[in-house]
Amino acid sequence: MKLFLISDNIDTYTGMRLAGVEGVVVHERQELLDALDAVFADKEIGILLLTEKFSRDFPEDINQLKLDRRLPLIVEIPDRHGTGRKPNFITDYVNEAIGLKL
């Protein structure tokens, strides 16, 4: 299985290419959807890396993909500007999911 990156900036793309991960840089919604279609057509791709900006800009599209697809595994990664998430987002997520405060 291969990893594939869809990035919104050239810096993240370049860093991942240096690590041996193939990918593309896109900026518009239609470019993102076209890249996603190409990834889903390639059965060798097991993990899709997306920069977090796409989830902020197109939350409906990304959330629907996560619900509808089992493969590839979709993983959001921070870009060169860091993460846009709160410092304790995992704890908050678990608290919300199980209804208990940890």
Description:
The protein has helices at residues 10-18, 29-41, 52-57, 59-68, 89-98, and strands at 2-7, 22-25, 45-51, 73-77. It has 102 residues and is α/β, with parallel strands linked by helices. Strands 2-1-3-4 form a four-stranded parallel β-sheet, sandwiched between helices. The radius of gyration is 15 Å and the shape is globular. The N and C termini lie far apart (36 Å). The mean pLDDT is 84.
The general outline is globular
CATH architecture: 3-Layer(aba) Sandwich
- Largest sheet: number of strands, sense, barrel closure: 4 strands, parallel
Number of helices: 5
Secondary-structure-derived class: alpha/beta
Helix content: 40-55%
- For the biggest β-sheet, the strand order reads 2-1-3-4
The span between the termini is: 36 Å
Keywords: Ion transport, Transport
Organism: Cuneatibacter caecimuris
Protein name: V/A-type H+-transporting ATPase subunit F
Family: Belongs to the V-ATPase F subunit family.
Can you tag this structure with a few keywords?
102 residues; alpha/beta; Rossmann fold; four-stranded parallel β-sheet; 5 helices; 47% helix; globular
What does this entry show, briefly?
It comes from Cuneatibacter caecimuris. The chain is α/β, with parallel strands linked by helices and 102 residues long.
What topology does this entry show?
Blueprint: E1 2-7, H1 10-18, E2 22-25, H2 29-41, E3 45-51, H3 52-57, H4 59-68, E4 73-77, H5 89-98
Parallel strand pairs: 1-2, 1-3, 3-4
